[in-house]
Amino acid sequence: MTFSLAAYMDDRSAAVEKELRRLLSSRGAAPISFLAPVPEPLRKSMLYSLMAGGKRLRPMLVMTAASCCGLAERKALKTGCALEMIHTYSLIHDDLPAMDDDDLRRGKPTNHKVFGEATAILAGDGLLTLAFELAAENAAELGLGGRASAELVRVIAAGAGARGMVGGQVADLSAEGWSEKTLRGGQVRARRLIDYIHTHKTSALIAASLEAGAVLAQASPRRRSALREYGRAVGLAFQIADDVLDIVGDKKKLGKRGSDAENKKLTYPRIYGLDRSRALARDWAARARRSLKVFGPEAEPLRALADFVVSRDR
Length: 314
Description:
By secondary structure, this protein is mainly alpha-helical. The protein has a single domain, classed as Farnesyl Diphosphate Synthase (Orthogonal Bundle), CATH 1.10.600.10. It has helices at about 5-25, 40-50, 55-70, 75-95, 110-115, 115-140, 145-160, 165-175, 180-185, 185-200, 205-215, 220-250, 250-255, 270, 275-290, 300-310, and strands at about 105, 110. A two-stranded antiparallel sheet has the order 1-2. α1 (about 5-25) packs across α4 (about 75-95), α8 (about 165-175) runs antiparallel to α10 and α15 (about 275-290) runs antiparallel to α16 (about 300-310). The protein starts with a helix and ends in a 5-residue tail after the last helix. The mean pLDDT is about 90.
């Protein structure tokens, strides 16, 4: 039977969305009885962005990596939801006036347009911190020892923090406003900078998602390393394809207006051109596939995903 990535992703997306709703139910996610439920205005803001759609790529990667390393997917679902919460927090903050100043995300008004800037900031904060609570719960439920539990938290924090996604976001902000003249005179610097930006801003959290699944499964160092390298490569392929879609994609399908050109951001097509950017995306996708040679057929979803990220239209 031919493997269907679309069906595979749809099944996991449905499981993730069901669990996300449960975790952010009106009772709150706190397992400790003396903690009050999440305040309703905050919960609504968190839920608004969390349930606004998306591919649920990061939780799928957590679960698939865990499965590749011998752990049942459902046992990694809570950590998968944690990674989705971190991703969603980053989008809420990314859209703020002080950052990209976007008013549309996935075809809907951005969080701060609906709930105000202060609540949007706090919703992002709430999702980020809840993510670590959930990852710690998952480790405890699996009976991981202290060292493995700490390693799970470290992997996620490193991918999300100043040496990962947040550091990449800062570099991305610093790269705004490049004129065509500056770009022509600084091609080498621009290429190094954009690779740094997206190795951190995009790939770091994707790689952390895969490695988190491996840690939950108590995988060997070799398998962890392979999954980490796959995440870095597929993350770059994903970002380059995203930059291309920002120019040529159907804005209705993308659900955003495409603000990169307005902000004069460094993007792969702006530096390399569309054709070369598409070739780079394919190269990174091929590198991602090669990194999986340590795995057998259990990694077929990851191989199919590497192909998908460079052929998608949204």
